[in-house]
Design goal:
- The complex is a heterotrimer of chains A (220), B (271) and C (215).
- Chain A contains 8 helices and no strands.
- Chain A is an all-alpha fold and 220 residues long.
- The longest helix of chain A has 42 residues.
- With 271 residues, chain B is an alpha/beta fold.
- In chain B, the strands form 3 sheets. In chain B, strands 1, 4, 5, 6, 7 and 13 form a 6-stranded mixed beta sheet that branches. Chain B has a 5-stranded mixed beta sheet with strand order 10-9-11-8-12, with helices on both faces.
- The chains are: A mainly alpha (220), B alpha/beta (271), C mainly alpha (215).
Chain lengths: 220, 271, 215
Amino acid sequence: MDVSIFAEYGPRLLSGFGLTILCWLLGTVLGAALGLLIAVAQRYGGRSVRWVLQTYIEVIRGTPFLVQLFLLYYGGPMIGLRLDPLPAGLLGLTIYGSPYFAEIFRSAFRAVPLGLIEAGRAIGMPELAIVRRILLPVGLVSALPALVNFSIILTKETVILSIITVPELMYQTQYMATMTFTYLEGYLALALFFWGFVEVISRLGRRLERRITRHLIERS
Amino acid sequence: MKLTTTFTAALFGLSALSLAAPAMADQLADVQEAGKIVTATDMHYAPFDMIVDGEYQGMTKDLFDGVTAELGVTPVYQDIPWTAELPGLEVGKFDIVIAPVTITPERLERYTFTLPIADATVSLIKPAGSDLVKPEDIAGKTVGVQQGTAQFKQLQTFGDSLGGITIKEYGTNDEAFADLGAGRLDAVAASMPNATTLVKARPEQFALFEPAQFGEPTYFGWVLRPGEDSASLAAAINDALLKMTDDGRVKEIQEKWLGAYTELPREVPGS
Amino acid sequence: MFSLSTFLDAFWPLTLAARYTLLVSGLGIALGLVIGAFVCVLALSKSRAARTVAALWVSYLRGVPMLVQLLVVFFLLPVIGINVPAIVAAVVTTAIVASAYISEIWRGAILALPRGQTEAAIAIGMRPRDTWTRIILPQAVALSIPQLINELILLVKASSLVSVVGVMEITRASQAQAGVTFRPLEAYLAAACLYLVINLCLAALGRWLEHRMAV
């Protein structure tokens, strides 16, 4: 293997990896926030709100991210939505992830014992406080494994941002590959980067899970 | 070179089995014995390769049909996206890449090329109704091009000579054209045949610069693995191409797909 | 600007290509269920070595993008002398990637069953085999149906990647369509509609199954 290639293109690959992490992090946080809003609106919204949100969820979940992103970035200007690659990519990731996050929150809310909510109402808590102080803290604990799992799936969706010229890891790897013909080396580097990245996320996820469920484990 | 090939094998968990010592010695004999030649091309690059009503057609197919008839073998056509073509060729997944690949000095060091099959000189496309006219007008503008192509390097050199342009690189020409349509780019640089076909297909949206071409003349060729093994096959394909040039078949095919005939070099440029 | 006729014309070729999308994702999940069950057995086994193998399998397949794995399968096998057709490489890769997710889904479903049930089975003298086939598996399968349907929907969308080894499925067909018309937006929009139809049908199937198998 020609190590000099990695010496020359190393900085590019590293900056790509940095951008991949940034896109993943922002995409996950914003997607989860939007998903949470949707889940809460579904719980408290009227019939028409629920119907609109359900349609949104079905459409976004039913179509591939590649197709969504292409239409958003290259089709957006047709309806006056002209975004730069990075904002378009982040918006795309947020939209793509939101229905999955919404479903995770929705089932987590359903798993919260009804008695807790009724107790909250009985002592006169307003609905907002019930969401903030009962649904969220209790629901998040049971939703955590699913949240980590989906955020892992999102790491790999970030490679699709390369088609709208966001210079993330896939884009930079392809750049190196086409300039130096090191396709196989490039894909190997990509595989190792992602494997390591996902391992780190799942380890952090498991540690977080242990930490926040500590109070549930009986002390013996 | 050998190190790279060995690494390729190691990459796929096969460090024990070195690719550097393949069993075959003469690819032409192997192909003729099998009675078929396995090809790879990206079937969305008009007018060379396209799928119309489920059928593969285009200039590449007509040319390669002629060549394989001369060789007495049956072609097997496969649609493989560009990113997987050269890696697949290197590990022996196909015998030849018949996607039009621009012949460059860097690529000649790494692969064996056949004779040119078409003019690849870089051309500039603009949105219909744009104020830009001649290639020099792109000075200071934003121009799109496919990543890592020969057209990219020519555009870079040309841009520098004009005092600087902003180059945006795309994975494929499709995305560059889409972004030109979306209004984010002032121009796109692409090979002459592809640019001409685009403008002919969507005259209401795109137009060519006048003159459209700039830079050094370059050519498309087909790609084989490097080394002794492929030498016999490359020679046989080149003989067939020359024969087809001399009896007028190449001219006929070019006029059918490009609308005009360009005489091509009779040896691989730069080799 | 937007060409309605190009959009409508794209549907027939894309519908033909949808056969490959369905073939790859359908066979992929079917094989994935078998391999996934096997991996799940390893993961729940008492042997430390077996658990390590299962953990590595899941970690590698979930960690590495499917595109890269496809290239590995497609380009690795010919090197050792097995030249599989593109469609086989596509199905095999989809199946092994799916197996990693499916084994986790099943492991989760089995672990979610109340322990008391197994203990009760043992207490009334049920043999371990019967405990599995009559108590644990029927409930675990029913519990995992929604997640398995979700996985299938994800696979339908992920199958767009198999175009990289030369399978003409929906996404690839829409690119081919755009290559002739130079109108990618129309082609991609048509692709989006087809994916949506397929996945809405799957989601409906999932709700029906969930309803029928409700425990």
